[in-house]
Specification:
Length: 436
């Protein structure tokens, strides 16, 4: 077999490898027929025409740009998601390529690896096999599948700039690795730096995705909360109507119209308990804007989890909350959503099972205080809100960390945490002057 034919076949294998990795990263497992075949052939052809024994930054950059265009055609995603997905795809391929190259460099030179036909095929097949095994490891597969679909367009400029810088650095590192392709200090230093950059950028994208998940969760809930607020207003109106209905009944009774009184009662009877009236009375002190709906929704959630939720909203709260704009309302609702979710979850495993929510104003500050019973255990207040820390075990701790990121983006919010007796207390404090 001639070297040129081997290079062409190797490039097609590389195109197929990139295609398989991208399928997982873009979470698009279905085979798209002719479009996917064209994608493989296009990436393979690009790789073939830009093939060089020594990696060159310019040709590799062109290869990445052309691959982004092909993947954009294939997956029909936004340019932002396509760029992130393409860089992740090439990053995974590069990491596997570096790993396999470390092994092959023990036995052959870079010229043999990329210039002798049987080594060309062996290396490309090895990279393909390791790539498929890697992306199908359950924990890796789950993580990388969730990144691109959960990206949103917020902060996309900073993300693209950072990814672009990462890409340029990686391409220079690949060039340095290819010209020092032996077990030398320079070789290993460049490999370690390249792996470190890959891990760093993966953590960055994962962190951004976690943040977007929180944002999307409460953003999607926001429209639903507006509907809830409309229903709360309707219930308030119904309670007001009951006063009129009682007045009518009084008239019937005074005139001894017993039959008409009974018929009238049968027409208006509804199952509304005193607890619901108290809740609606408290919520009337909060204007529409998302927060009212959120609190009502969380009250329902707590009931379903057998947790008693006590709500106390001062009458002065209304005038403070009315001054907030739409974005401020959303930010506060998202943060309180995290706080209340955590409070309910902690209360469910405690003996008392109580959550208290107080909203009140003092001078120019608005206080949102959530206190909950919790299971007695060691709680490190200094670590609360830091990434990965949770008293609930592995896989938790993201909510508070991401909520704190939201707070740091503002100049009008701050949070405080303390434990008093058997209650964990989380405060969100709004500075009215700074919020203007």
């Amino acid at each position: 077999m001639s070297t040129e034919i081997a290079i062409f076949i190797g490039c097609m294998i590389c195109g197929f490898t990139i295609f398989k990795i991208s399928k997982v990263i873009f979470n698009n497992p279905k085979f798209g027929g002719i479009k996917d075949i064209i994608t493989i052939l296009l990436i393979g052809t690009i790789t073939y025409f830009l093939y060089e024994v020594t990696y060159k930054t310019e040709s590799n950059m062109l290869k990445v740009i052309l691959s982004i265009i092909v993947l954009k055609f294939s997956y029909k995603e936004t340019m932002f998601k396509t760029v992130v997905g393409a860089i992740l795809t090439i990053g995974v391929l590069t990491a596997v390529d570096l790993f396999s190259s470390l092994i092959f460099s023990l036995f052959i030179t870079v010229n043999q690896m990329r210039g002798v036909w049987y080594f060309i095929l062996l290396c490309n097949i090895t990279v393909f096999i390791i790539s498929i095994i890697t992306i199908n490891i359950p924990i890796i597969n789950k993580k990388i599948r969730s990144i691109v679909p959960n990206l949103n367009e917020r902060s996309k400029f900073s993300s693209i700039v950072l990814l672009g810088l990462y890409l340029v650095i990686m391409l220079f590192l690949l060039y340095n690795i290819s010209i020092n392709y032996n077990w030398s200090a320079k070789f290993f230093i460049n490999v370690i730096i390249a792996i470190s950059y890959f891990i760093t950028i993966f953590i960055f994208i994962k962190d951004r995705t976690d943040y977007n998940n929180l944002f999307n969760k409460y953003e999607g809930l926001f429209e639903f909360l507006n509907e809830i607020e409309d229903n709360i207003d309707k219930l308030s109106f119904i309670n007001h109507e009951y006063k009129n209905q009682i007045a009518v009944l009084k008239g019937y009774i005074e005139n001894n119209n017993t039959e008409e009184s009974l018929n009238y009662i049968n027409n208006i009877i509804e199952d509304i308990n005193i607890e619901d009236k108290d809740i609606i009375s408290q919520l009337n002190n909060i204007p529409k804007g998302g927060l009212k709906g959120l609190l009502y929704y969380k009250i329902i959630t707590s009931k379903n989890k057998k947790v008693e939720l006590i709500l106390d909203v001062s009458k002065t709260s209304n005038k403070y909350l009315k001054k907030l704009n739409k974005n401020q309302n959303r930010t506060i609702s998202k943060i309180l959503g995290v706080y209340i979710d955590n409070a309910i979850e902690a209360a469910t495993v405690s003996k008392i099972k109580i959550v208290n929510i107080e909203i009140y104003a003092i001078n120019n500050e608005m206080f949102f205080v959530i206190s909950n019973s919790f299971k007695k255990e060691k709680v490190n207040l200094n670590k609360i809100g830091k990434k990965g820390y949770s008293t609930k075990g592995k896989g938790h701790g993201k909510g508070l960390y991401l909520a704190n990121k939201e707070i740091r983006k503002t100049n009008y919010l701050k949070s405080e945490t303390q434990i008093i007796n058997d209650y964990y207390i989380q405060k969100l404090i709004l500075n009215e002057k700074e919020a203007k």
